[in-house]
Amino acid sequence: xxxxxxKAFLEIAEIGSFQHSAERLHITQSTISARIKTLEEQLGQDxxxxxxxGAQLTPQGHKLVPHAQAAVQAWEQxxxxxxxxxxxxxxxxxxxxxxxxxDLLLPWVDQIKAQRAEVxxxxxxxxxxxxxxxxxxxxxxxxxxxxxxxxxxxxxxRILLDELILASSEQRSAQVEWREDYVHVDWGxxxxxxxxxxxxTLRAPALTVGTYTLALDYIxxxxxxxxxxxxxxxxxxDSGQLHQIQDAPVFEHPVYLVRPSAPxxxxxxxxxxxxxxxMLGAT
Length: 283
Fold this sequence. Notes:
By secondary structure, the chain is of the alpha/beta class. Helices cover 45% and strands 23% of the residues. The chain has 3 domains: 3-66, Arc Repressor Mutant, subunit A; 76-159 and 255-282, 3-Layer(aba) Sandwich (D-Maltodextrin-Binding Protein, domain 2); 161-254, 3-Layer(aba) Sandwich (D-Maltodextrin-Binding Protein, domain 2).
């Protein structure tokens, strides 16, 4: 059975659209339709109910999901293991949302390496939607994301609840009016809803960025303010390089650890998760 066919199946199962799945896989809609048709012919089962507004899994399609995930993950793991150096016996593929690279992923990897020298790593830094796609397809063993997985066969554990505070390069009162130096960090749909409820009359921001680290770089150069994780900018607040605007709202923003419920190497994945819990408990 062709792995590309299984990847196409999992993509459609996740987002419910042949057209959008083809766009994300960078193939034509006719190509993805042909892959699913071939898969259905090989299995002798209809996998999707095609509708005008998208595609829905049939009962047989739902049954195929965990098997397709296992097959794709096994293929990705085999490719990694075949390229392992002699001194390594295990490979762990971990992804992290871009803003979680320095303060979570790197110390987590250090913690694992200190106890398991035989483990090699494949580390990827992306936005959460890309990471979820990669872990669903078997390209990752674990991922630190701002969004949980909605796919069957995966576990999403909330490991942190970040406080997003309005941090400024200078001391000031709450942002109740339009400010030209406000940098809007796009933290996702949940944050956008909270932000719009708190600031019902503000104009659209002049500058929007995808990560708070980009906002930090901009503010360091030009001054300004942005919503940032209090945990991540604590040292800057303590040193006076940033100032929390005390009467501004504080928004909650969860961080999830996403992993397959039945990983290929459960002992290693469980160990890595325990290292993460230990690290977070010590901070």
